[in-house]
């Protein structure tokens, strides 16, 4: 069975995710970063491997997607490796030259079920059994948000460790340099050289300490949301959308630079 890689902008995820879930419900081997990258796995490496393994690229086209460096890179790779590319037009925009000559799928004003049926046909899937309960995409979206929060927790931990490691290294270098120039038999140098390394390293280490508190707060917030998702009880279907809105807003705040 051929494997399709989905290139899209995060701005379009609410439109993209239900389509991918619909194709999967029909047995389609459709890869999406939010659903298929395990927590803790290197993000770029996982995408590179999945794109390399795919025989087809589904490009969810919008102005935001065409402005995304990642989407443009994925399109270039697919073109260079002569993969089959299926442009899906989510919003009016001007296609790049090499995509204009390809048969596209118009998704503007098209329902999710109809879009899934068209793409299923393009991928050689049987859409006659398509069933898309409303609660399924929402539950899977929640799982996708959990994976995104988990990935952010890992990235924040790595960044925090790098900052703390750099701070410790700078302090050690400053201390060693100060001790060295005060040892008996050390080279006779003026006060600026003797104390300069210590003062410089201490100043630099102080600068690197400032983001530590913010990084810890953001990591704590991410971990709290993961715990909240894990302990969430069953709830009526009508409560899913407000919950997803909370998740979406929280993720924007946590990942804001």
Main features:
64% helix; Rossmann fold; alpha/beta; 5 strands; 10 helices; 257 residues; 2 domains; globular; five-stranded parallel sheet; 9% strand
What's this, in brief?
This protein is an alpha/beta fold.
Give the secondary structure arrangement, pairings included.
Layout: E1 3-7, H1 13-25, E2 29-31, H2 33-36, H3 43-53, E3 56-61, H4 63-67, H5 69-80, E4 84-89, H6 97-100, E5 105-106, H7 112-122, H8 135-182, H9 191-230, H10 240-255
Helix pairs in contact: 1-7, 8-9, 8-10, 9-10
If you had to describe this structure to a student in words, what would you say it looks like?
The protein is of the alpha/beta class and 257 residues long. It folds into two domains: 3-131, Toll/interleukin-1 receptor homology (TIR) domain (Rossmann fold); 136-255, no CATH class. The protein is 64% helix and 9% strand. The protein contains ten helices and five strands. It has helices at 13-25, 33-36, 43-53, 63-67, 69-80, 97-100, 112-122, 135-182, 191-230, 240-255, and strands spanning 3-7, 29-31, 56-61, 84-89, 105-106. Strands 2-1-3-4-5 form a five-stranded parallel beta sheet, sandwiched between helices. β4 (84-89), α6 (97-100) and β5 (105-106) form a beta-alpha-beta unit. The longest helix is centred in the middle third of the chain and has 48 residues, at 135-182. The chain is globular and about 85 Å long. The protein starts with a strand and ends with a helix.
